[in-house]
Amino acid sequence: METAAERRKRKLQLLCDAVPGGVRAVADAAGLNYQTLTQILNGTLLPPKKDGTQNPRSLGDQAAEKIEDEWGLGRGWFDSHRNLPKALGGEENGSNAELLDLALQSKEDDGGETLFIDYWDAQGSCGGGSINTETKLKGRLTKESSWFQRYKIKPTDALAIRANGDSMSDFIVDGDIVIFDTTKTTPRSGTIFLIEHPDGLKIKQLRRDIDGAWVLESRNLNKGRFPDERIPPESTDMLVIKGEFIYRQGG
Question: CATH class for domain 114-249?
């Protein structure tokens, strides 16, 4: 039997999967902390109680109401069996089983075509360590055709891998599945890319310095643990971009 906390978590994931910008957009629109929503979706445990037990962080009443109001879901949506509104790709009176199917498989209720993204058995480092870059096909992610239209990408041009590490944790957290557009390999300042590095695949934000150097930026404020990496102008040909970031979802 699904608990109230589990239902809220599942429906939060359903909403984040449907909204362009995902968790970040849902949090920002409702004036909530992005990290808090990420922890809820990841099942992060709260500090132990006096008896030693620990519960996962859950979506509280006030936060739930802010999200419901901002996204036009109607009060009580998180605790009901109502589906997403049609404006967000849902069907108003879907059953609980249908909601779960949507959350796991991203199917459209209006009969839209279901397409797939190759999910490779490789990890993109959001840290500084060496990562195994074996590129064996692990499986396929299911997305509705409208998702590809929204992000203006063909299924054959999309690449999905799992993020590893915390250097991008203000936006991409450890364990996220990250999708890239492999047709976009021209570096752009302020944009996140999947980069082929001597240490392995890295997920980093690029920044162009005034002298022409490229900086592989970490978005974690702890620069002592996650330092930026500078590629001087004479070595920029070593910057091999495999794709531009387009989407992330909790893994």
Answer: mainly beta
Please name the residue ranges forming H helices in the chain.
Answer: 4-18, 22-30, 34-42, 61-70, 96-105, 145-150
pLDDT digits (tens, 9 = 90+) for 34-47: 889 999 998 888 88
Mean pLDDT estimate for the chain: 78
For the chain, the structural domain boundaries read 4-105, 114-249
* Closest listed residue to residue 14, CA positions, set 105, 92, 86, 95: 105
Residues near 110 by Cβ (< 8 Å), separated by ≥ 6?
A: 91
Model's pTM, two decimal places? 0.53
Q: How far is the C-alpha of 208 from the C-alpha of 27, rounded, in Å? A: 29
Q: Between the CA atoms of 38, 169, 206 and 181, what dihedral angle is there, to the nearest 10 degrees? A: -40
